[in-house]
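Pipeline run #58 for the internal structure catalog. This entry was flagged by the ingest filter as a single-chain record with no existing model, so it goes straight to prediction. Upstream metadata was stripped on purpose; only the residue string is passed forward. Reviewer on rotation: M.T. Logging verbosity set to normal.
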Amino acid sequence: MYLPPQFASQDPAIARELMRAHPFAQLISTDDTGFPFVTPLPLHLVEEEGGLTLLGHVARPNPQATQLRARPQALVVFQGPHAYLTPRVYPDLARVPTWNYLMVQARVEVRFVEAFDDKDRLLKHLIHDHDPAYDAQWRALPEDYQHKMMQGIHAFELRVLDLQCKLKLNQHRPESHAALLAAYERGNPNEQALAGWMRRLGLSGQPRA
């Protein structure tokens, strides 16, 4: 993605935090003609000594699985909070609107998970993330039903090869920070989330001690 240096986060902990806080990602590959194909899906992040891995699955009829078996590299995009930026936050009038946002982009290599037990472990990570109370219900289902459900998905591990994290918060326009922060703090949940990130990154418009 386009990543000007003033918006590039060099802290991998921030990227991991955003990936966990906003796990509903876009998995992007290409079809046989080279045209992009996108599947929105939840992903679970695993941190290991060898790096980062994302766990997920798609429905068996989804043609993206065939594409990924043929071309096992893809792009994953995590979208964090985002909001409009009005030019009224600037002290001068010669300004135009833009959009602030937080985003993580990962280039990944795909490995499919085939065995029932491996799929089961993968699914339990996702259950634990989003509905841990369902775990007991899943375990209590008949074994033949569980196997039937597992046959209906393509499960995979996405090993992260490269990671980019973009925090676009008007860092390069400090004259706007105080008014922008005040506006975001009064705004909707996305705007309030961006206000929190502005404070965290020291973009309050107040001189630092």
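catalog note: The mean pLDDT is 95.
catalog note: The longest strand covers residues 98-113.
status: ready for reviewer M.T.
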